[in-house]
């Protein structure tokens, strides 16, 4: 039965276990924001699949059973929404867009964003994806030739920002070749952590006692907004010069501008710029960090690395990168590696859902205003759902795999890296295309000499909206002479 619509609740929040709580602050002092996901997972191990705590005045219920999680996620937008604090902060930051919007605004925007990121668009966009991936290959080719260490996360973010800007705005911003201080994401890199910090801060200290970083935020926002105004102005000029584009827009920004100019569309100037920023933010870290975790996991698992490299070389057949969606579709093992990386290292390890009205979750009465945090990883690491759950074993994702404890279908019900229900990630086709493009390019053209952290230990997980590996650096060698190699220009 649908847990959120059960007619009768059999317990209340007061019946739930949870960590100790102090007057006024609740459990806030026990939480390390940078590792909040890990703290909440530890509490789940101690208190079970449903527990509660207070964050100052906010009542939080945490659930981790995959069925309950999926039910809550599907019960949007009517019963649950994203947190109102996220919506308010996004409005203040100027990027209220599909991710943070709720109600009618979300309903109006969702079809437009979906259309801009659907598989047909990805197919039409493929030649540009090839161009950006080849540019990235040349960039890594230069690092391999010079023997320099690559800051893995930073480089991957350059790639994902370039791809998102090209697909959603038709802009070639080429941050891959830009100087560090010119790259648009140096602003994003300050804004995302600030947003996350403010979302879970017990008090709005940045308003009354701003530190250096807080004082720098308006400057970063201004720089980003000026770039966004440039994208919008150029797209508006294209619509003026080619009015046919209003009926058949080729990218998201054109579609939104055309809608803005139609009567009663309900799309405002702010919606357009909010979504331009949302695309940059939602498409950057998520995909880049998933790729960083994937590359690290492959490097640690030589058998999987060898098989993935063989597949990449066979499918690419001596070329630098895949040439078509059909070629990408043949990278089955690499896709399985990506799902296995997202099972072990989900970059979105928690999804917050605020109850818009009184609800029932797993038999618990949840009053309106309660924040329900869905933990995405405990089910994926549970031996009930996967054999040897801590092992990186991509084979378990391939149909008919002997090692799989469950079918592919049920694995996908437990592992939900892109969320679920009406708000499931609309960028998932693009993300998988990018992940497979980069992984195949890397494995077919280079040998990974090293992927390491400064202290030689496993990379720490840190949460700043997305969960990323701290300090990964990579060294590459061009693949041996009988293999294809990327020649630096
Ligand atoms: C591996 C890469 C990615 C992962 C793991 C990921 C994960 C997620 C998750 C977990 C959500 C929340 C879903 C929910 O609430 O049920 C989400 C939402 C969203 N994602 Fe992604 N994402 C990725 C890449 C992208 C890309 C490339 C884009 C666009 C360029 C994108 C755009 C969005 C947007 C706009 C939303 C909000 C959807 C809504 O609320 O209706 N994502 N993503």
Automatic annotation (TrEMBL):
Pfam families the UniProt entry points to: p450 (PF00067)
What InterPro entries does the record point to? Cyt_P450, Cyt_P450_CS, Cyt_P450_E_grp-I, Cyt_P450_sf
Family as reported in the entry's similarity comment: Belongs to the cytochrome P450 family.
Q: Which UniProt keywords apply?
A: Heme, Iron, Metal-binding, Monooxygenase, Oxidoreductase
Q: Which PROSITE patterns match?
A: CYTOCHROME_P450
Its organism's taxonomic lineage begins at:
Bacteria, Pseudomonadati, Pseudomonadota, Betaproteobacteria, Burkholderiales
Name it.
Answer: Cytochrome P450
């Amino acid at each position: 039965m649908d847990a959120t619509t059960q007619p009768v609740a059999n317990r209340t929040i007061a019946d739930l276990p949870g960590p100790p709580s102090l007057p006024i602050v609740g459990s806030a002092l026990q939480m390390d924001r940078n590792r909040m996901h890990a703290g909440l997972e530890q509490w789940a191990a101690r208190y079970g699949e449903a527990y509660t705590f207070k964050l100052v005045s906010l009542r939080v219920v945490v659930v981790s059973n995959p069925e309950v999680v999926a039910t809550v996620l599907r019960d949007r937008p009517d019963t649950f929404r994203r947190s109102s604090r996220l919506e308010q902060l996004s409005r203040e930051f100027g990027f209220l867009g599909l991710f943070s919007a709720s109600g009618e605004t979300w309903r109006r925007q969702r079809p437009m964003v979906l259309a801009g990121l659907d598989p047909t668009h990805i197919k039409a966009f493929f030649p540009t994806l090839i161009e950006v991936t080849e540019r990235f290959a040349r960039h890594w080719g230069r690092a391999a030739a010079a023997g320099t260490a690559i800051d893995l996360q930073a480089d991957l973010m350059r790639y994902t920002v370039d791809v998102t800007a090209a697909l959603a705005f038709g802009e070639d911003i080429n941050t891959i070749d830009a100087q560090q201080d010119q790259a648009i994401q140096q602003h994003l890199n300050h804004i995302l952590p600030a947003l996350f910090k403010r979302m879970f801060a017990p008090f709005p200290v940045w308003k009354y006692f701003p530190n250096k970083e807080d004082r720098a935020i308006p400057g970063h926002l201004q720089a980003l907004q000026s770039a966004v105004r440039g994208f919008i102005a150029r797209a508006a000029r294209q619509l003026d010069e080619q009015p046919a584009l209003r009926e058949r827009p080729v990218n998201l920004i054109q579609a939104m501008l055309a809608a803005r100019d139609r009567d009663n569309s309900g799309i405002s100037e702010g919606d357009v710029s909010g979504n331009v920023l949302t695309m940059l933010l939602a498409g950057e870290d998520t995909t880049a960090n998933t790729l960083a975790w994937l590359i690290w996991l492959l490097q640690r698992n030589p058998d999987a690395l060898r098989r993935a490299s063989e597949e990449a070389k066979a499918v690419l057949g001596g070329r630098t990168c895949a040439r078509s969606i059909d070629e990408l579709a043949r990278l089955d093992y690499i896709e399985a590696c990506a799902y296995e990386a997202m099972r072990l290292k989900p970059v979105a390890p928690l999804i917050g859902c605020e109850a818009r009205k009184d609800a029932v979750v797993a038999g618990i009465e949840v009053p309106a205003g309660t924040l329900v945090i869905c933990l995405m990883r405990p089910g994926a690491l549970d031996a009930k759902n996967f054999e040897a759950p801590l092992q990186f074993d991509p084979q378990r994702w391939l149909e008919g795999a002997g090692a799989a404890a469950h079918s592919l279908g049920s694995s996908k019900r437990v592992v939900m890296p892109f969320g679920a229900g009406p708000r499931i990630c609309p960028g998932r086709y693009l993300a998988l295309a990018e992940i497979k493009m980069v992984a195949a390019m890397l494995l077919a053209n280079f040998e990974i000499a090293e992927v390491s952290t400064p202290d030689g230990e496993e990379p720490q997980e840190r949460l700043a909206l997305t969960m990323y590996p701290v300090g990964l650096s990579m060294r590459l060698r061009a693949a041996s002479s009988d293999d294809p190699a990327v020649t630096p220009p």
